Amino acid sequence: MKLENSPSTDRHRQLMDTNDSLPEKSAATVAFEQDLNALLLEAFANGAAVEGEWKINLPVEAAPDWTIQITKRRSEKHSVDDLEFIEE
Q: What is the pTM of this model?
């Protein structure tokens, strides 16, 4: 996986370099979730096949490798019961 230089990438590098205090982990987790949400939304909007499994091997020796599984699920905000059908 190649990391490009971007404000998001720079922020992640800074967070990875900080010590392991709880408030910084919390901020890092919130930032990760926001970035992941934006990435999925953009990819889905562009027609990418986001459902699947990816094995990510990072080029940083001290960082672990990851397996990422993305599955589609029904939105918790909307259910079939909430839909209004137009009768013809």
A: 0.55
